[in-house]
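Structure tokens please, single chain.
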Amino acid sequence: MDLVVGATGFLGTEICRQLIAQGQRVRALVRATSDPAKKAALQNLGVELIEGDLKDAASLAAACQGVTAVLSTATSIISQQAGDSFNAVDLDGQINLIEAAKTAGVAQFVYVSFSGQIETDSPLRTAKRAVEQHLQQSGLSYTILRPTNFMEVWLSPVVGFDVANATATVYGSGHNKISWISLVDVAQFAVASLTNPAARNAVLELGGPEALSPLEVIAQFEAVTGKPFTVQHVPEEALQAQHAAATDPMQRTFAALMLSTARGDVIDMTATLQAFPLNLTSISEFIRRS
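Here you go.
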């Protein structure tokens, strides 16, 4: 039995889908307040649901019983609910989960963090790096996945990349390259980590098959859609000022992530793909698919 935490999110749901497709038994930790439609979608896949919360250690102990592997994608950055915060969920909650997995004798813990090249200070970065360290020192067999920018997030209207209206917000100059990765591929790595010896006690930096600048990505969208994009740049200096002035943890984190995007994030996947021979989604494939 595999336990997926963060299962109602896009990445967590995709991990559940891929595990079920491989014939695995999957349990998903969901909250009483989780979207009923998302819970129903998981059940339709064949996923067993168990109610709990990262902030409730007792519920995690129950969720981990009889589990071989835990895969955690949970974060409060998108679906923040009452009582959630980076400290409560992304830090203390994940540590609660690690301890519950350890007590239950779980064989492997897969934790989805973010790129090791994200160096700008933020509450989310502090939480993720602390959880990584705690997991590495826990005695559990672990895999830490560090994906760079998700195509499905950073090439979407959520951050100002609006294909339907042919407009795009570009952070910084737009010339620094990023190894954009699809969440479908991150899910592939998470699932493969359960059986691939190369994932044992490993930290894997993850990117897609090519590094392209935001302006190069926009050019590809223009070629496919036949529409010229209206591009608005947010200068790096403005992002630095926003980051320095932020008093709210969420604002500071978003400013840090936008700064990291402006500075680029190239991941050399040569060695990783030798150990994990997976087919990764290119930007052109993502455009056709979406």
